[in-house]
Design brief:
Elements (H helix, E strand, L loop, with lengths): L2 H24 L3 H4 L1 E2 L15 H14 L2 E4 L4 E4 L3 E2 L5 E2 L4 E4 L5 E12 L4 E4 L18 E2 L4 E6 L5 E9 L6 E2 L13 E6 L5 E9 L4 E6 L10 E4 L2 E3 L4 E9 L1 E4 L2 E3 L12 E5 L6 E3 L1 E4 L2 E3 L6 E3 L3 E2 L2 E4 L2 E3 L6 E3 L4 E4 L2 E3 L16 E3 L2 E3 L17 E4 L5 E3 L2 E4 L4 E11 L2 E4 L7 E6 L2 E4 L8 E2 L3 E3 L2 E2 L5 H33 L1
């Protein structure tokens, strides 16, 4: 190849590259085509003008495009101002609602705040606008709410990603009407609702607070979606009315470094009032759920409750549960496991099972009644001051129980205590009964009953003699027989007394 031909070839290649670059710059990128801002649809974002209609139009555009990126500014968007309906009563508004998007729906909050306008109606009302006095068990006649959800995404195959956003329901400044449902105000009005999205679901640094109902409502797909990420990181649910988060169906959710606090502490309080309620509904299963480094604190109801529906296999690691004036946890479903967690307050309805793999497991956990560890500095223990462990094979492995106030060690019949240390200051008699494995140390006024002593068990400095399961059962049978004989004798004496009187 001559020098001239080589030079010409280089010039042609440079020209072709320049033309290609020019064509790329002249044509909008695919991402740019799918970028949306509420301002494009009329939002002011000044915290004074209601931007609800702009967000509804934005949603329509995103749905028409099959997905896209929503970019918000670091400002306050006022939303939720109710409008007169056909009958003159205030009707709810539609905000960000996404459905059937085949591409990812991404909301980049950039520190934005969606604020519900004050003075909206929430609850059940008479036609003249006055609150209904009696609880309305069901129906929507007279129901009022500013919105169903600030963000609702459903049946999105492309997935949902929401980050750096504050959702302020402003419940303390609304007009509260009559109650509906079994307890409280069972009227959906939530921060984020995710329903049946087969694609990935990611929430990062999202704060949903003062929502009249739930902060987060999660209703995942009925069937597992292997390889699809469902991860919530750094979310906050604070001062919401019914739950910090309701999980009613789905598989494979991972919730990490998040906080669920003060549910039911505001203007609206509805049962269960939990930090997180894990309650499978509509015959959906809940499986393979994991919480890590999360805090569940100072909720009006339980910190975490799971007691209904087809729920199993939920794990908690390095979490903190504070039952300020209610139960710390209510895990009445199979396959719950707690690793290295801290519990302030009592446990109740801890699931036991003849199959140890299904019974609740606590590994390396700490249980205490120390009020200085509570965010309010207070801790009111329920009923007997002891955790109630009724089921069999509930395992406490390497756990520490430190009761420095009026708290009492767990009341159990068939739990397994392995390598645990228990201390109690209260003079009440504790009854942590079951099977003691490994090396256990108890410093308390305790009655272990007919427990199985399978390893060194030291009570107030005295090591108890070993006792096999068979020996424990014989002692229990003898006691029951003796009690039965005494009851029969007493009943016979009473019958004779009655006969003599007659």
């Amino acid at each position: 190849m001559t020098a001239t031909s080589a030079s010409t070839r280089r010039q042609l290649l440079r020209a072709a590259a320049s033309l290609a670059l020019a064509a790329m710059l002249a044509r909008p990128t695919y991402a740019a085509e799918l970028a949306f801002t509420p301002e494009r649809y009329g939002a002011r974002g000044d915290g004074r003008t209601d931007d609800s209609d702009a967000f509804a139009r934005l949603s329509d555009a995103v749905n028409a495009a099959g997905g896209g990126v929503v970019q918000l500014r670091k400002t306050t968007y006022l939303v939720g101002t109710q409008k007169p309906g056909p009958d003159g009563a205030p009707s709810e508004v539609r905000l960000m609602t996404f459905a059937n998007c085949r591409r990812m729906v991404t909301i980049r909050g950039n520190g934005a705040r969606l604020l519900c306008a004050p003075g909206q109606r929430y609850g059940m009302f008479q036609p003249d606008g006055t609150p209904v006095a009696k609880i309305v068990p069901k129906g929507i006649v007279g129901r009022a709410r500013p919105y169903a959800a600030m963000i609702d995404a459903r049946f999105c195959a492309g997935g949902v990603h929401i980050e750096n956003l504050e959702l302020d329901g402003n419940s303390g400044k609304h007009i509260i009407g009559g109650k509906r449902g079994d307890k409280g105000w069972q009227i959906g009005c939530v921060g984020i609702a995710l329903r049946n999205n087969s694609g990935p679901e990611r929430l990062i640094n999202v704060n949903a607070h003062h929502q009249p109902h739930d902060g987060f409502y999660i209703d995942g797909p009925r069937e597992p979606t292997p390889g699809v990420e469902r991860r919530f990181t750094g979310i906050v649910a604070d001062m919401n009315g019914r739950q910090g988060m309701s999980l009613v169906g789905g598989h494979g959710y991972r919730i990490e470094r998040s906080r669920f606090s003060r549910t039911g502490r505001g203007a609206v309080a509805s049962a269960p009032g939990a930090g997180v309620d894990i309650e499978a509904q509509r015959k959906k299963p809940i499986r393979d759920i994991a919480f890590s480094d999360c805090r569940f604190e100072d909720n009006r109801g339980c910190a975490v409750v799971a007691d209904s529906g087809n729920t199993a296999d939920v794990r908690f690691a390095d979490c903190r549960f504070v039952g300020t004036d209610n139960w710390a946890v209510w895990p009445d479903k199979p396959g719950f496991a707690f690793d290295r967690c801290l519990f302030l307050g009592n446990l109740v309805h801890v699931y036991g099972d003849a199959d140890p793999r299904r019974a609740t497991r606590f590994t390396g956990c700490r249980f205490t009644d120390d009020p200085t560890l509570s965010p309010t500095g207070k801790l009111a223990l329920r009923k007997s001051k002891a955790s109630l462990i009724k089921g069999e094979n509930v395992l406490f492995d390497g756990c520490a129980f430190t009761m420095i106030g009026e708290g009492v060690l767990p009341r159990s019949d068939a739990a397994i205590y392995r390598n645990c240390r228990m201390t109690q200051a209260s003079p009440k008699i504790a009854t942590p009964r079951g099977t003691f494995e490994g090396r256990n140390i108890i410093e308390a006024k305790a009655d272990l009953g007919f427990s199985v002593i399978a390893g060194p068990t030291i009570v107030n400095g005295k090591e108890l003699p070993l006792r096999s399961r068979e020996e424990a059962q014989k002692l229990k049978d003898a006691r029951e027989k003796s009690t039965s004989n005494k009851s029969a004798a007493i009943e016979g004496a009473l019958r004779s007394s009655v006969e003599i009187q007659v």
